[in-house]
Q: What sequence folds into this?
């Protein structure tokens, strides 16, 4: 008998870890281990940065916040962050229909 998938998972949506709120995909374990050691995962989920900006943020944390070297895990972490928490292509909601806008 097949197991039921959590309600948060559909064919088009990734599964979300209920504790951290992070997408459960390749790299999730590394991000959870390294990033959640110092701050809440919500700091990740509320951001939407390019791979380059995530790398700048990691370097800032290493230079100013005592983040350890990530070694071989760094490319996997960056891939995960850029894929799941990269720049958004849509706004939170679609634009208002023209008939709903105020008259000039």
A:
């Amino acid at each position: 008998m097949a197991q039921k998938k959590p309600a948060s998972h559909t064919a088009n949506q990734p599964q979300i870890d209920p504790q951290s709120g992070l997408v459960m995909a390749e790299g999730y374990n590394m991000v959870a281990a390294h990033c959640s050691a110092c701050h809440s995962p919500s700091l990740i989920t509320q951001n939407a940065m390019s791979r380059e900006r995530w790398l700048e943020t990691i370097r800032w944390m290493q230079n100013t916040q005592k983040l350890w070297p990530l070694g071989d895990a760094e490319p996997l972490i960056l891939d995960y962050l850029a894929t799941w928490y990269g720049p958004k292509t849509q706004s939170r909601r679609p634009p208002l229909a023209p008939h709903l806008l105020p008259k000039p």
About this structure: DSSP finds four helices and no strands in the chain. The helical segments are 28-35, 42-45, 51-64, 73-84.
